């Protein structure tokens, strides 16, 4: 680097430092008009994993930041987890959340056990406070002790009949306490009963199973909870989870926001009967489509079904790109809001990045197919030919660890590529890396990239949905390469390893991107979205009350020159002073896409059934069925919808109508199309 280049770098460093200081001063100014709405907040997911990833991190940070604004929140988990209390203690000990402001709760630990009144006791074969203090007789063939490979603690004790078939299994947590007993059928070898236990002996719940011979598996028959007010039975896990949610809803009359972070939990919340004081919402953390953007992922079906039923008050997106894609596919919705992630900058003491190890390339990812770590490994067979001293350090754990180790050995990369396991200090790794890389198949918004840029660590990433090209601006704070182009990835790694000046510029530019995701901006996005959610709900409720006595019906259908004409009938009167826009909307039954809409004039609507726009929409979505709804909205697009029923005398023939070849009456008597393929 010559003198002019050095001077250029110094000037740029001074300018960026001065600009960041100005931005920080501006952001630190108090903004008293911005307040998070005063309500009870419930953030919902299934479980807390031992080594949790980006979704749980973002949920915990949301809870922490809300707490800093004196807004308390509850982190709800449903799944049975004997290690739940230990995990929560670990989170609190690390000061990830303030326990005075955030209650991390589990359905079993914080609802079932405290509200139970056991009628039965279980008498374990060994009854110490800690099973690991027992002196074990290893000679008894009817008992087998199963220990944890790492800690050597007893996890299970299995008891056998004389014929060596299992009779029962006792399970113990890491504190050595009995928490569950399973009984096995001698006929099938399957579990037929589970006892859930606290304080070594008290049975607070049972699960009974029935064996399905034809499927060779067990099915839950019922769950029996010994509640304080008497025995309660539930047919499935859903009913039990909704019991807890209903208890929370009726805890008091305060407004409550139920925010679902995990798509697997959507049905438990959105199928619940909602109180007027409750708001149901979802935040999207991952890609919503399969290989094509018109094909909705199966785990998103419940959410978009309930959006169509207007059970959802808000959907929060963490990238503008995904929000735009969803609007293109499903139509404009006033309940869609943008709330990007942030990082807790207090834990990121950013330093000048020229102290980084010049040979270290970092990857922070779970070892799963979605993270596509194998491409990063394969890229290094090309990297080391140009830069033999380069190292790829991969931090994370997961089911692909064995496969990735084999790939490293196969490519003779043992001296250059290292699987380092899970790290509790990702910031230290980012600060000492020359760059980080991301090769995911898809993401919601990659927190690992955010962690990298906040630590001034340039990023080379595949161009995947969503967030990669938002966080990494090509040739500004890193490189964006075409997905699955391993050699292109390798070339960019080589380029950044060799070019000190380019690395310096990228490193400095990281802060400009990081400022966009600052905590003040995070608060502003959430405050704006939450207040708008409340406003939209009020306006929707007004339209709902006004339209409740109004009912539409399809009374005539005709087709001429490929133009379909529908005549409607209305029951009730819409007040003229109320400005309501009526539209007929066709939705794809399978992926919930809004295919087309047409304004209703004088209770008539016509549209060219063979129009190129309609044909294109049907082809693009591979539509088999179109379901029609009446949409009633105001000029601000606050809307409600209701299915369009058909008059009794109309469309009673079997199959589709001869009038247009597509119209038919559903079993429930509503208007739909069935398309010939």
Quaternary state of this entry equals single chain
Could you please say which CATH topology of the largest domain applies here?
Rossmann fold
Characterize the biggest β-sheet.
9 strands, antiparallel
Low-confidence stretches: 22-31
**Total count of helical runs of at least 4 residues:** 17
- The CATH superfamily of the largest domain appears as Glycogen Phosphorylase B
* Architecture per CATH nomenclature, i.e. the level-2 architecture of the largest domain: 3-Layer(aba) Sandwich
- Overall shape: it is globular
CATH C-level label of the largest domain? Alpha Beta
The overall pLDDT average reads 91
- Compute the separation of the termini in Å: 66 Å
Residues in helix, %:
25-40%
Radius of gyration: 30 Å
Number of spatially distinct domains: 4
The percent range for strand residues is 25-35%
Please report the total strand number as a whole number.
Answer: 31
Give the class from helix and strand content and strand pairing: alpha/beta
Keywords for this structure?
Rossmann fold; single chain; 31 strands; 17 helices; alpha/beta; globular; seven-stranded parallel β-sheet; 30% helix; 677 residues; 27% strand
Descriptive account of the structure:
- The protein starts with a helix and ends with a strand.
- The strands form five sheets. Strands 4, 5, 6, 7, 8, 9, 10, 11 and 12 form a nine-stranded antiparallel β-sheet that branches. Strands 3-2-1-13-14-15-16 form a seven-stranded parallel β-sheet.
- The protein is built from 17 helices and 31 strands.
- Helix content is 30%, strand content 27%.
- The protein is α/β, with parallel strands linked by helices and 677 residues long.
- Helix 12 (447-454) links the parallel strand 20 (435-438) and strand 21 (459-462).
- It folds into four domains: 33-114 and 241-338, Glycogen Phosphorylase B (Rossmann fold, 3-Layer(aba) Sandwich); 120-227; 345-517, Rossmann fold, CATH 3.40.50; 549-674, Immunoglobulin-like (Sandwich), CATH 2.60.40.
């Amino acid at each position: 680097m010559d003198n002019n280049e050095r001077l250029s770098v110094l000037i740029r460093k001074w300018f960026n430092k001065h600009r960041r200081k100005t931005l920080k001063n501006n952001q630190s100014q108090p903004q008293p008009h911005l307040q998070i709405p005063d309500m009870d907040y419930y953030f919902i997911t299934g479980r807390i994993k031992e080594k949790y990833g980006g979704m749980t991190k973002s949920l915990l940070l949301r809870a922490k930041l809300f707490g800093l604004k004196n807004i308390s929140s509850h982190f709800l988990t449903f799944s049975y987890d004997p290690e739940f209390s230990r995990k929560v203690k670990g989170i609190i000990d690390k000061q990830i959340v303030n326990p005075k402001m955030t209650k991390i709760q589990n359905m079993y630990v914080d609802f079932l056990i405290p509200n139970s009144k056991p009628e039965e006791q279980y008498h374990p074969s060994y009854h110490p406070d800690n099973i690991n203090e027992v002196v074990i007789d290893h000679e008894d063939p009817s008992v087998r002790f199963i220990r944890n490979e790492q800690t050597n603690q007893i996890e299970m004790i299995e008891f056998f009949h004389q014929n060596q078939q299992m009779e029962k299994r006792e399970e113990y947590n890491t504190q050595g306490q009995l928490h569950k007993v399973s009984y096995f059928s001698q006929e099938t070898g399957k579990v037929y009963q589970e006892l859930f236990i606290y304080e070594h002996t008290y049975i607070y719940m049972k699960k009974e199973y029935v064996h399905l011979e034809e499927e060779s598996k067990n099915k839950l028959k019922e769950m029996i909870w010994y509640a304080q007010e008497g025995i309660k039975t539930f047919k499935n896990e859903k009913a039990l989870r909704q019991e807890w949610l209903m208890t929370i809803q009726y805890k008091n009359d305060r407004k409550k926001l139920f925010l679902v972070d995990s798509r697997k939990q959507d049905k438990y919340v959105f199928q619940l009967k909602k109180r007027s004081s409750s708001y149901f919402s979802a935040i999207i953390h991952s890609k919503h489509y399969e290989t094509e953007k018109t094909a909705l992922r199966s785990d998103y079906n419940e959410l978009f079904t309930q959006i169509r039923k207007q059970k959802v008050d808000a959907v929060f997106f963490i990238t503008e790109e995904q929000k735009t894609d969803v609007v293109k596919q499903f139509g404009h919705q006033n309940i869609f809001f943008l709330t990007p992630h942030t990082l807790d900058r207090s834990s990121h003491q950013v330093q000048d990045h020229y102290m980084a190890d010049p040979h270290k390339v970092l990857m922070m990812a779970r070892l799963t197919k979605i993270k596509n770590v194998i491409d990063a490994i394969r890229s290094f067979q090309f990297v080391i030919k140009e830069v033999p001293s380069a190292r790829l350090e991969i931090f994370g754990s997961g089911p692909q660890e064995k496969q990735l180790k084999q790939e490293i050995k196969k490519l003779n990369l043992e001296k250059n590529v290292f699987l380092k396991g899970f790290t509790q200090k990702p910031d230290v790794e980012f600060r000492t890396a020359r760059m980080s890389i991301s090769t995911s198949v898809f993401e919601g918004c990659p927190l690992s990239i955010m962690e990298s840029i906040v630590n001034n660590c340039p990023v080379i990433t595949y161009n995947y949905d969503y967030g990669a090209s938002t966080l990494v601006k090509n040739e500004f704070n890193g490189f964006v390469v075409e997905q699955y182009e391993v050699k292109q990835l390798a070339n960019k790694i080589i380029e950044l390893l060799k070019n000190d000046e380019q690395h310096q510029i990228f490193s400095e530019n990281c802060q400009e991107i990081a400022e966009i995701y600052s905590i003040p901006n995070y608060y502003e996005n959430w405050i704006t979205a939450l207040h708008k959610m409340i406003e939209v709900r009020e306006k929707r409720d007004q339209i709902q009350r006004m339209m409740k006595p109004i009912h539409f019906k399809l009374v005539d259908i005709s087709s001429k020159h490929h133009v379909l004409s529908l005549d409607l009938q209305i029951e009730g009167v819409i007040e003229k002073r109320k400005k309501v826009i009526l539209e007929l909307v066709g939705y794809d039954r399978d992926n919930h896409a809004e295919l087309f809409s047409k304004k209703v004039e004088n209770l008539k609507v016509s549209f060219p059934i063979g129009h190129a726009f309609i044909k294109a929409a049907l082809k693009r979505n591979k539509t088999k069925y179109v379901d029609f709804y009446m949409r009633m909205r105001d000029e601000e697009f606050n809307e409600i919808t209701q299915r369009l029923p058909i008059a009794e005398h109309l469309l009673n023939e079997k199959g589709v109508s001869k009038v247009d070849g597509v119209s038919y009456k559903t079993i429930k008597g509503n208007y739909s199309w069935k398309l010939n393929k």
